[in-house]
Design the sequence.
């Protein structure tokens, strides 16, 4: 018996069952969707959300015999909000909203959903947020963020820390590139293994689109990513270094072939499903053709802040260090190149709240300085 028919354009991410309802979590058109089915009548409806780009997660729902379902919603503009939703009347009640200190006024910020066309014609979603009055004028600073690996969906959720940039006129965007999971399993498969370069060219297409639509300019565009997103940073600066003013590469996975060949490291044979088995010549050659360390050339590179953690078990500290050393040897410009190694941190950076904020403050200081916003 088919309970939920297959739809090519929709990914079912999860299902929660209650006595008379199914909650079906979908990824549809690059956004999270929640479909609710009443079992006794077979009627269905979708939960509606008020903003063009957002994040939604299931809350704690321990009671099986209930028609009230708890979920958490947030967006670039809306702080994390907990709702109770009546599955029968379709009424929702706000139970709690994250407090944002400093007199936060959400009406002063705007989020949008854009789309860029990739090299092969695929449409790549972009989530965007900016402060009122910032608008596209061709001269605004913009921070473009990306990840695009492991099928991980990079939803547009709230961060009070970002307000520091937004209030200085920096637009923030997320490129929902292939290799991530925003558009389902096919989207993920088109950005892994022998399709991995789609991740990089998608990101470049997003950057070019934002410039063409006058959201920013080349000398006002910064980019950031960490771990596999750091690999993304390394790959795109090799491909199109002139496109970016400043780059933050956090604990970047940049020595792809050497790392995956070393089976004593965590990021080796367990990762073959994502990147390929380098003992196979086809995979070896393909990985080497985009590995950031192996493709550094004698040319100009943008301003770079590279971070590492001495205790990082996923991306060993020497990986960003040797990438930095080779860049220093090969690059032909006078732009800033910084390597910052946290001697007491692992893959996730500083663990204490205040130490973590200090790391973010350092990154923001780098961006503001390089973008001329000091």
Sequence:
């Amino acid at each position: 018996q088919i309970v939920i028919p297959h739809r090519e354009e929709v990914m079912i991410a999860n299902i929660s069952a209650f006595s008379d309802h199914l909650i079906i979590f979908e990824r549809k058109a690059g956004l999270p969707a929640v479909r609710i089915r009443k079992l006794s009548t077979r009627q269905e409806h979708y939960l509606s959300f008020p903003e063009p780009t957002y994040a939604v997660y299931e809350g704690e729902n321990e009671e099986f015999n209930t028609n009230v379902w708890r979920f958490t919603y947030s967006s670039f503009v809306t702080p994390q909000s907990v709702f109770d939703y009546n599955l029968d009347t379709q009424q929702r009640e706000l139970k709690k909203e994250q407090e944002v200190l400093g007199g936060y006024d959400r009406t002063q910020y705007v989020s949008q959903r854009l789309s860029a066309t990739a090299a092969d014609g695929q449409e790549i979603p972009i989530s965007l947020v900016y402060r009122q009055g910032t608008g596209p004028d061709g001269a605004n600073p913009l921070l473009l963020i990306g990840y695009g690996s492991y099928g991980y969906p990079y939803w547009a959720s709230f961060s009070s820390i970002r307000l520091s940039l937004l209030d200085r006129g920096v637009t923030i965007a997320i490129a929902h590139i292939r290799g991530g999971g925003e558009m389902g399993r096919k989207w993920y498969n088109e950005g892994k293994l022998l399709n991995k370069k789609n991740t990089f060219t998608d990101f470049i297409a997003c950057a070019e689109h934002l410039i063409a639509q006058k959201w920013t300019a080349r000398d006002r565009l910064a980019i950031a990513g960490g771990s596999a997103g750091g690999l993304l940073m390394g790959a795109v600066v090799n491909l199109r270094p002139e496109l970016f003013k400043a780059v933050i590469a956090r604990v970047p996975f940049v020595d792809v072939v050497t790392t995956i060949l070393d089976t004593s490291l965590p990021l080796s044979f367990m990762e073959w499903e994502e990147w390929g088995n380098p003992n196979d010549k086809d995979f070896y050659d393909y990985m080497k053709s985009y590995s950031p360390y192996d493709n550094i050339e004698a040319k100009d590179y943008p301003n770079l802040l590279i971070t590492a953690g001495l205790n990082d078990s996923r991306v060993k500290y020497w990986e960003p260090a040797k990438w930095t050393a080779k860049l220093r040897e090969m690059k032909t410009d006078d732009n800033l190149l910084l390597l910052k190694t946290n001697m007491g941190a692992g893959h996730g950076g500083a663990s204490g709240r205040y130490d973590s904020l200090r790391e973010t403050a350092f990154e923001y200081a780098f961006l503001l300085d390089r973008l001329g916003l000091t």
